[in-house]
Amino acid sequence: MATPNYSYEKRQRELAKKRKKEEKLKRKSERGDAPAEGEQPPAGEAGETGEAGGEQPTGPG
Q: Does residue 33 contact residue 39 with C-beta atoms inside 8 Å?
């Protein structure tokens, strides 16, 4: 009976991870800086005037 070649299997897993990571980076770069649907821009950027308004939630009590 042949013994398993663990180093080959490990190398294949590493290559698969590397491919997946590269594809993810490629998708992110294609998407650009525009936020996806349903996402809101981070606080402190577009749409904030600095005034205290009804948009800010108040604490209980």
A: no
**With a threshold of 0.85, does the pTM exceed it?**
no
Start-to-end C-alpha separation, the chain: 73
Determine the Cα–Cα distance for residues 29 and 23; give it in Å rounded to an integer.
10
> What phi and psi values does residue 54 have, to the nearest 5 degrees?
-75, -10
> How confident is the model over 28-41, as pLDDT tens digits?
999 876 555 665 66
Q: Are 41 and 47 in contact (CB under 8 A)?
A: yes
How would you label 12-34 residue by residue, b for 16+ Cβ within 10 Å and e otherwise? eeeeeeeeeeeeeeeeeeeeeee
